[in-house]
Amino acid sequence: MLRGMYLTRNGNLQRRHTMKEAKDMKNKLGIFRRRNESPGAQPGGKADKMVKSFKPTSEEALKWGESLEKLLLHKYGLAVFQAFLRTEFSEENLEFWLACEDFKKVKSQSKMTAKAKKIFAEYIAIQACKEVNLDSYTREHTKDNLQSVTRGCFDLAQKRIFGLMEKDSYPRFLRSDLYLDLINQKKMSPPL
Prior knowledge:
The chain is mainly α and 192 residues long. It has helices spanning 19-37, 46-54, 58-63, 68-73, 75-87, 91-103, 109-124, 136-145, 155-174, 177-183, 185-188; strands at 5-7, 13-15. The radius of gyration is 19 Å and the shape is elongated.
C-alpha cells in the first residue's frame, strides 16, 4: 500500500513520481500508434480495423478539449487520460468514476449490494487503499446510502470526483505531451 510513497519533512505522506511507470504507460500506448502508422500496412483485418477505429484522428482528439465527458466517451481518450493520471499518481479518481459507471449496470440486488460495499471499501472508506478525496459530508452521505443500496447510491460522490478531475487533472491533461502529440499528429506525419 505504501509503495511509491514517502514521508516529507513535515510528516505528510506524499506520492513519489517514478519516470519508469510513466515511460511504461507511454510505451504501452505507443503500440497502438506503431500498429496504426506502420508503412505499407493494409487495413482489412479485424484487428487492424479495431486499432484504426480506436486511435483518434487529430480532429477527434481536438474534440476532447471541449469537455471531459467527450474525452471519457472515446475509448482511446479514456486510455490516454488514464495513462496521464498514472503519471500524476491520481488514477484512483478515474478508477472510482469507472467503478461507479459499472455499478449502475448491475441488475441483481444482491450483486449490487456486494459491489457497493466493495467500491466503498476500496475508494471511500477512510484509509482505503485507493481512497479518493471526498469531503466528510459526501463520505457520510454515501455511507448512509449503503443501508439501502440503489443504483444512485454513489451519485453524489461520483459527481464530486468528476468535478475534481474536471477542474484539476483534465486541464493539465490538455497541456500534456500525451494530448498535444495526438492533436499535432498530422503535422508530424511525413507527406505521402
